[in-house]
């Protein structure tokens, strides 16, 4: 009998839009992923430091501390903070050169504009980063 227990994967959703965070949370839970939801960057940073989630979904425009400040502090924190996958979900357009330079500097895993994606797109990116997608090389290899 195998006594090894796999650690449950945890995603932190840092989003002030309650309807969106609820939808993301519900869909992640259906995939068997644990979820922590917070509504601002200040709380998001504190929870991230304490819980060390496997991935963070991060809005940019939020109360108390915006997502860029949270990500900057997270990346400066320690090795875990430097490397934890972060998917930015925002209403802000990627057409702003300065913003994109700032974002690129902080190395998010993905930058998704809210108008350009559906929940299933976000779930696929989360599952991909967490290693939950089936290997495409298993099929058709001779």
Automatic annotation (TrEMBL):
GO terms for biological process: phosphorelay signal transduction system. Residues 10-123 form the Response regulatory domain. Pfam families: Response_reg. InterPro entries: Bact_response_regulator (IPR050595), CheY-like_superfamily (IPR011006), Sig_transdc_resp-reg_receiver (IPR001789). The modification 4-aspartylphosphate is found at residue 59. SMART domains: REC. CDD domains: REC_OmpR. Keywords: Phosphoprotein. The keyword Phosphoprotein applies. It comes from the Bacteria. This is Response regulatory domain-containing protein. It comes from Candidatus Harrisonbacteria bacterium CG10_big_fil_rev_8_21_14_0_10_42_17.
